[in-house]
Amino acid sequence: MSDTNEPATNESAVPPPYEAAPAAPAPVPAMAGGGMAPYAAAGPVGTIRSTGTCVLLTIVTLGFYTWYWWYKTHDEMKRHSGEGIGGGIALLLAILVSIVMPFLTSNEVGKLYERDGKKAPVTAMTGLWYLLLGWLFFIGAIVWFVKTNSALNDYWRSKGAQG
């Protein structure tokens, strides 16, 4: 016991000096042109589909092939990149509110390119072909499909798909 009225101190209770916080991770370097750095896609590469064959199948099946095409392409894009709406939601939207599909599909195809650090050949705005000129002998719908399907086929070829 101590004669003084000073409180007892326990030196082990004194906190150690603060350490400097770890440095923040270095930012990812920007690519030329402002694109994102390429990513490693974990999923499989999709199937190349002939534009002419797809149009013919759409005519022969009275348009039902388009549901299959939207399901398969969105399923493949989601499996490949891990992002997007996937085949089931694409099919549901194609059946219930089909007018959104040209916009969503072109947007997802464009994002495949952007994730790879390339300029997107199609965007959601490409869907305007379908919307604005689709009623005129299907000219807009055909232009939209040729642009979007060609861009998707070119992307799959760049990843090693044959066809």
Gross morphology = globular
The secondary structure category is mainly alpha
Could you give the count of β-strands?
0
Query: How many helical elements?
Result: 6
Order of helices and strands: HHHHHH
> How would a crystallographer describe the biggest sheet?
none
Mean pLDDT: 83
Q: Helicity level, as a percent range?
A: 40-55%
Alpha carbon gyration radius:
27 Å
> Whole-Å distance between the termini?
91 Å
**Unreliable residue stretches:** 26-37
What is the beta-strand fraction? under 5%
Give a verbal description of the structure.
There is one protein chain. With 163 residues, this protein is mainly alpha-helical. It is built from six helices and no strands. It has a domain at 51-158. Helix 2 packs parallel to helix 4 (101-115) and helix 4 packs parallel to helix 6. The model is unreliable at 26-37 (pLDDT under 50).
Task: Name some characteristics of this structure.
163 residues, mainly alpha
In brief, what are we looking at here?
By secondary structure, the chain is mainly alpha-helical. Helices cover 50% and strands 0% of the residues.
Topology summary:
Blueprint (H helix, E strand, L loop, with lengths): L50 H10 L3 H18 L4 H11 L4 H15 L11 H7 L5 H20 L5
Helix pairs in contact: 1-2, 2-3, 2-4, 4-5, 4-6, 5-6
